[in-house]
Amino acid sequence: xxxxxxDKLLSQVDSNYASVxxxxxxxxxxxxYYHNLGEGTFDEFPxxxxxxxxxxxxxxxxxxxxxxKIKYEYR
Length: 75
Description:
This protein is mainly alpha-helical and about 80 residues long.
């Protein structure tokens, strides 16, 4: 089961496709943040913006999208 629910995601983004693209990009940023923590170079990527019991980077990214923490725009 996907958490957060799709209807909460669609209230923040235009389509399912947009939610996938935004969440995947943010999950890569979160992954890079945690990998760079040990090296001391964590200023390039922001830390997670929500408190989450999950350790899965994609779940954290989806929770950020559902919470309205991520803004995006089409080019």
